[in-house]
Every structure is written in C-alpha cells, then in structure tokens.
Amino acid sequence: MASAPAPSAARLYRPNRFVSLPAELDPDTYDTSPEKRRAEAERLAIRSQLKRQYLLQLNNPSPPAVIEDPALIRWAYAKSQNVYPTFRPTPKTSFLGAAYALGPLLFWIAVLKAHRDYKEKRIQEATICPKTRSQILSFPEEEYFQ
Amino acid sequence: MSMDMMPGPYPRTPEERAAAAKKYNMRVEDYQPYPDDGLGYGDYPMLPDKSQYERDPWYQWDQPDMRHNWGEPMHWHFDMYIRNRADTSPTVVPWHTMSKHFFIFLGTMLVMFGLGAIYPSYMPVVTRPP
User: Fold this and answer.
1) Is residue B92 predicted with pLDDT exceeding 70?
2) Residue A30 carries which DSSP code?
C-alpha cells in the first residue's frame, strides 16, 4: 500500500509572520518561466527609471538642498494623515476600539476595587489595623514583618 | 509633491487600482492594497512582511543602511523592519520546533518550581530549646 508522498520541506518549515521561508526551500527560486522573467524585466524597468531620476538630482552641479524621496513622503503621510479620512466604523473597528480603550480602564477599576474591598474586610474584621498618621509617615514595620 | 501623488482612499474600480499602482511605482499585478475593513490603511500597498535584513547585502542600494531604493514603496511597518529592529530572516531551526522546545522546557521548570514551593522538602531539624 503506497503512503502519501512526504510533505515538502517548505511545508515542514511552516514559515509565519516572524520567519520567512529560506530561498532554498522556496519553489519560486527555481522558477525560470517566461512570465516570471517578464515580471522581473518590468520591475527592473520601473527601477531604472526611478534610479535615473534620483541620479539626475544627485549629480546635478547645483543639487537641491534635500533630495525628497516620494516614497518616504507617501509613507509618512499614509501613516499619519491618511488614517482618519480612510477610517470608518465597522463591527471590527468598534470592537477593537472598545477592547483597547475601555478594556484596561475597566480591568484596573475592577482590580483596585477588589483589592480595596479585601483590605476593608480585613480592617473590619480587625486582622489588620488601619494605619495611624504616624505609622503612615514612619516605616511600617508591622505590615512588613507580620 | 501634489496631492494626487499622496495616498488616498481604498481603490474600488480597476482604473483606480491601476492609477494607485502607478502612483506607488509598482506593477499593476504586484499592487495589492490592504483589505478594506476601515482600519485606516487606505490604498497603501500591502507588501510582504519581510525585514530589511532579508534584502541582498551586496546590491548597490541607493540608501545602503536602510537597504532601500529611491522611490521604492516602503512597507507600512518599515520602521519596525529596519536592521536595528525586528528581523524575519529564515532561522536554521523552524519556528514551531523552537517554540515547542522553549515552552516545554519553561512549562516543566515552572511546574517543578511550583510543586517545590507548595511541597517544600528539607532536612529534618530539631528546634532549639528556648
């Protein structure tokens, strides 16, 4: 009875968000089809045009003070000023907003309230004494060495 | 730079996609915007999540320390992927193997320390007479 073919090394490696697949295991590395080469040629053409524009500015006898990189300007604009216009409330964004904004607030309210209730219960049952003013100002040995 | 060269809203029609790809200096086939769930990405391209470490160290980049060319679209998290920060280079051992080894070891040690704290064991001693 023939068993299934062994899983490929790429499938065994399981690349994720933190590590990429090594080039040796990636079948795309060994792909020499005409489509891939045409794609690479088109990308190279775009790259050459951009490099030409860059070098013209760089080797200019009177160069500009700063050679602006449009990609950098677009990146900064997209991350800062394009977020609010393109944001819209959806179930996912509403949930995320509530989780990140209200979640920690409610969590710490609950924790501090529970802790204070616990201390108040112990004070009422007289297992610890509420600190007098002089105790608060001085070193609280009783609490430390109970 | 004029405003039509700046990022804009999510492209809906194929013409808008082609215009956005041209704006970002990418091929139309390569251009893939972030999914439109209102998180604020707009038409910014979704590039593969690879850090700058993975780029060829021997190529003559326009900006060698950033391994970035002039005009090339930058990843949304470019400032995380610079070579002083996050590194997504392939590891010798697969990630799932490493995490399995780590968490099994950590879990075992924590369990043993926890048990040792609950059930301490020490040489029997006699109390000193008062």
Assistant:
1) yes
2) G
b vs e for B53-76, b when ≥16 Cβ sit within 10 Å of the residue's Cβ?
Answer: bbeeeeeebbeeebbbbbbbbbbb
CB B73 within 8 A of CB A46: no
Domain ranges of chain B: 1-46, 49-88, 90-119
| Contacts with B93 (C-beta within 8 Å, 6 or more apart), sequence order | none
The one-letter amino acid at A40: E
Q: Do B6 and A90 touch (CB under 8 A)?
A: no
Instruction: Give the closest-approach CA distance of B126 to chain A in angstroms.
Output: 24
pLDDT digits 0-9 by tens, A14-47 = 888 899 999 888 888 888 899 999 999 999 999 9
Confidence at residue B11, expressed as pLDDT on a 0 to 100 scale: 92
Least confident of A97-111, A121-135, B13-27, B52-66: A121-135
- The distance of B59 to chain A (nearest Cα, Å) reads 13
Say what the pTM is.
0.79
User: Mutation test of the interface with chain A: which of B16, B56, B70, B99, choosing the one with the most A Cβ atoms within 10 A?
Assistant: B70
Q: Please tell me the distance in Å from B53's CA to the nearest CA on chain A.
A: 11
For residue B6, which of B46, B43, B39 has the smallest C-alpha distance?
A: B43
Q: What is the pLDDT of residue A141?
A: 58
Question: Within 13 Å of residue B36, how many CA atoms lie on the same side as its CB?
Answer: 8
Instruction: State the ipTM, two decimals.
Output: 0.85
Torsion angle of the four alpha carbons B80, B83, B84, B90, in this order, in degrees rounded to the nearest 10: 80
Minimal CA–CA distance to B45: which of A101, A75, A135, A10?
A: A75
Flag if A67 and B24 touch (Cβ within 8 Å).
no
